[in-house]
Automatic annotation (TrEMBL):
InterPro entries: UDG_fam1, Ura-DNA_Glyclase_AS, Uracil-DNA_glycosylase-like, Uracil-DNA_glycosylase-like_sf
Record key words, sorted: Cytoplasm, DNA damage, DNA repair, Glycosidase, Hydrolase
Similarity comment text for this entry: Belongs to the uracil-DNA glycosylase (UDG) superfamily. UNG family.
Main location: cytoplasm
SUPFAM superfamilies xref list: Uracil-DNA glycosylase-like
Gene expressing this chain: ung
HAMAP family: UDG
Protein name as annotated: Uracil-DNA glycosylase
Organism of origin: Winogradskyella poriferorum
């Protein structure tokens, strides 16, 4: 596995890359990609970092696993490639944006424009074997991405963390709440959303309000 990551992250994460767990993770990922179909493409594993530099990061959204269907994952949590049908969680994200901000439901499910505005779309696990959800969990990725969250918490100020669902909320312990803002709600998956734990959270307008309070440019959530 080649660690192809934006130069702004390298000085902060180089020590992590040199740790034994990360070297073991690298061997594991290389073997998986050699012997099985895995997602996202090797060149897109670190897309979350390559399209949102360390210096530009002002919002963090935490997912769990990449999508494991063919052609879906592109290295950004909840995002799919152009022309791919929107998975149910992404559908509910877009529905909430519709009601929160009044934007029309987008055709594209590619969240790259969000990343380029400073949103780190971070999955806890960056790779997965095709059609096997969770297949690359507990191999070292979580240790790496926890280190990323702690790095942002320690080295930056006034970042907004959006924690959606029980898994993401567990990351709260890694974040200094005296220096950053946290917005919590249920997961956008149908199981959670249909029970009333997602819709109406207004996280998108709240994020922009919080950015304005610290003189940061707001996010244009439209994808068209």
């Amino acid at each position: 596995m080649k660690v192809d990551i934006h130069p702004s992250w390298e000085p902060h994460l180089q020590a992590e890359f040199n740790k034994p767990y990360f070297k073991n993770l690298t061997y594991f990922v290389k073997a998986e990609y050699k012997n099985h179909e895995c997602f996202p493409k090797g060149s897109e594993i670190f897309n979350a970092f390559n399209h949102c530099s360390f210096d530009n990061t002002k919002v963090v959204i935490i997912g769990q696993d990449p999508y494991h269907g063919v052609g879906q994952a592109n290295g950004l949590c909840f995002s799919v490639n152009e022309g791919i049908p929107h998975p149910p969680s992404l559908v509910n994200i877009f529905k909430e944006i519709e009601t929160d901000l009044g934007f029309a439901y987008p055709k594209s499910g590619n969240l790259m424009p969000w990343a380029k505005q400073g949103i780190l779309l971070l999955n806890a696990t960056l790779t997965v074997r095709a059609h096997q959800a969770g297949s690359h969990q507990n191999k070292g990725w979580e240790q790496f991405t926890d280190a990323v969250i702690k790095l942002i918490s320690e080295k930056k100020q006034n970042v907004i963390f959006l924690l959606w669902g029980g898994f993401a909320k567990k990351k709260k312990k890694l974040i200094d709440i005296s220096s950053h803002s946290i917005l919590e709600t249920g997961h956008p998956s149908p199981l959670s959303a249909n029970r009333g734990y997602w819709f109406g959270n207004k996280h998108f307008s709240k994020t922009n309000y919080l950015l304005q309070q610290v003189d940061q440019s707001v996010i244009d959530w439209k994808l068209e």
